[in-house]
């Protein structure tokens, strides 16, 4: 294939991939000084009177979501040109390839990495659902890896998506048959549960290296999806933890009322799978999915959006400490504050016990309001084994404006509550 030198205002630097309808190029955006991925319909499709209209519509659907779906695990759309002569969209460049590399029988990922990836997909699709969007074409080719050896992902290609209160996306017959839900192959009305089924198929394939249903042609495949029960993953691969086998089977239930009803249920079970004893994890390297669920369970973070929690995961330090460990020392300067993610800690001043902190409580936050780092007025000591989340002032300054705003608002609530409790105690003296 001969590469074009330019497409529109973008300099073409290489070919990233080719499909049945389009080619994806690595391009350079000179105005923003960044590499981008540019997906262009083949010229013969654009000029085709019937098919051209369909595929231009799909690109329009994708372009219409530019700026609407802003999430750390959804590929961003930057630009689009769609007319009778050319059709392309410009999106975030994700350099690690697609999830197709991790569904081959000889290259299946470790269980903990698999759960991280599926968990992040579930949170991104839950976010999309709350924006009124159902993807409708979840498959490994549409899940991009930021790094071939990591678990950071981006979901892409929302061209087939259903958008709530929109007629432009109601296109029939779109999707990849092997990953379609029974409702989708029967052309029934769809909601987010069709994506739950499709993500279940992706998870099945990552566990076993094969699809739940295979056939010689699409008609036979569609019949099997609508009528047959797939073999349990654990029957194909006995070392699969029972928790993961159960999650996949529930995600892929044929009947809607037996499938996961919400993304939150799906995400919750994935997070619990980390704690299943059949998955051996080093506590020093707490998985990101478990970190996310931990933050989501703490009342302090109740108003934080998913995107902001992922920010915190990258900015904060997570520690597993033994009983007796001094977390903060009275009289010392400090530029950080902490949250107790698990366990109990004692608050002492001059050796006298003042309080016992429990899971979810924060401490050391006055460092935020002291120039040059505040002097600790009390010591904090682990009473049991504890998980501690530490955020340094410098790290917080690197957070987005919205994330910092939520921190300051939540700290004001904490301080207000403490002042109210103090006033009540003084009044009772």
Protein architecture, described:
This protein has 429 residues and is of the alpha+beta class. The chain folds into three domains: 6-92, Phosphorylase Kinase, domain 1, CATH 3.30.200.20; 99-281, Transferase(Phosphotransferase), domain 1; 296-427, Sandwich (Jelly Rolls). The protein is 34% helix and 21% strand. The chain contains 13 helices and 20 strands. The protein has helices at 43-47, 51-64, 111-130, 182-185, 192-208, 218-227, 233-236, 242-251, 263-273, 288-297, 306-315, 393-397, 401-427; strands spanning 6-7, 10-18, 22-29, 34-41, 77-82, 87-92, 133-134, 143-145, 153-155, 162-163, 317-321, 326-328, 333-334, 336-342, 345-349, 352-357, 362-363, 374-375, 379-382, 386-392. The strands form six sheets. A six-stranded antiparallel β-sheet has the order 1-2-3-4-6-5. A four-stranded antiparallel β-sheet has the order 11-20-14-17. It is globular. It starts with 5 loop residues before the first strand and ends with a helix. The relative contact order is 0.08.
The largest beta-sheet arranges its strands as 1-2-3-4-6-5
Overall CATH class of the largest domain: Mainly Alpha
Helix content: 25-40%
Q: Low-confidence stretches at least 5 residues in length (pLDDT < 50)?
A: 277-282
CATH evolutionary superfamily of the largest domain:
Transferase(Phosphotransferase) domain 1
DSSP strand count: 20
CATH architecture of the largest domain: Orthogonal Bundle
Mean pLDDT rating: 88
Kindly identify the CATH topology of the largest domain. Answer: Transferase(Phosphotransferase), domain 1
Q: What is the approximate shape?
A: globular
From the N-terminal CA to the C-terminal CA, the straight-line distance is: 84 Å
The main β sheet shows up as:
6 strands, antiparallel
């Amino acid at each position: 294939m001969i590469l074009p030198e330019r497409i529109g205002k973008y300099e073409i630097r290489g070919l990233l991939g080719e499909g049945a309808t389009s080619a994806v190029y690595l391009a350079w955006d000179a105005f923003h000084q960044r590499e981008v991925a540019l997906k262009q319909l083949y010229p013969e499709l654009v000029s085709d009177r019937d098919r051209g209209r369909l595929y231009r519509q799909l690109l329009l659907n994708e372009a219409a979501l530019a700026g609407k779906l802003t999430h750390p695990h959804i590929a961003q759309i930057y630009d689009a040109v769609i007319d009778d002569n050319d059709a392309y969209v410009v999106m975030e460049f994700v350099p690690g390839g697609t999830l197709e590399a991790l569904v081959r029988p000889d290259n299946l990922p470790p269980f903990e990495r698999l759960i991280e990836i599926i968990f992040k997909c579930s949170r991104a699709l839950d976010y999309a659902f709350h924006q009124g969007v159902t993807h409708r074409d979840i498959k490994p080719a549409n899940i991009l890896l930021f790094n071939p050896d990591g678990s950071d992902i981006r979901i892409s290609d929302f061209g087939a998506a259903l958008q709530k209160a929109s007629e432009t996306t109601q296109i029939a017959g779109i999707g990849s048959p092997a990953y379609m839900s029974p409702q989708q192959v029967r052309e029934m009305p769809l909601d987010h549960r069709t994506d739950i089924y499709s993500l279940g198929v992706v998870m099945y394939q990552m566990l076993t290296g094969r699809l739940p249903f295979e056939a010689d042609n699409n008609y036979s495949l569609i019949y099997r999806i609508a009528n047959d029960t797939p073999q349990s993953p654990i029957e194909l691969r006995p070392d699969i933890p029972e928790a993961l086998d159960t999650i996949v089977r529930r995600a892929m239930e044929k009947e809607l009322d037996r499938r996961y009803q919400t993304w939150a249920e799906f995400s919750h079970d994935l997070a619990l799978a980390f704690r299943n004893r059949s998955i051996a994890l080093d506590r020093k390297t707490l998985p990101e999915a478990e970190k996310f669920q931990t933050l989501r369970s703490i009342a302090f973070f109740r108003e934080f959006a998913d995107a902001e929690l992922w920010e915190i995961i990258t900015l904060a330090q997570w520690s597993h400490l033994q009983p007796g460990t001094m977390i903060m020392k009275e009289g010392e300067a400090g530029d950080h504050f902490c949250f107790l993610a698990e366990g109990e800690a004692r608050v002492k001043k001059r050796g006298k016990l003042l309080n016992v902190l429990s899971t979810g409580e924060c401490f050391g936050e006055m460092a935020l309001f002291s120039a040059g780092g505040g002097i600790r007025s009390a010591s904090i000591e682990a009473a049991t084994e504890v998980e501690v989340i530490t955020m340094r002032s410098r790290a917080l300054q690197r957070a987005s404006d919205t994330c910092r705003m939520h921190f300051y608002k939540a700290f004001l609530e904490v301080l207000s509550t403490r002042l109210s409790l103090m006033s009540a105690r003084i009044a009772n003296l």
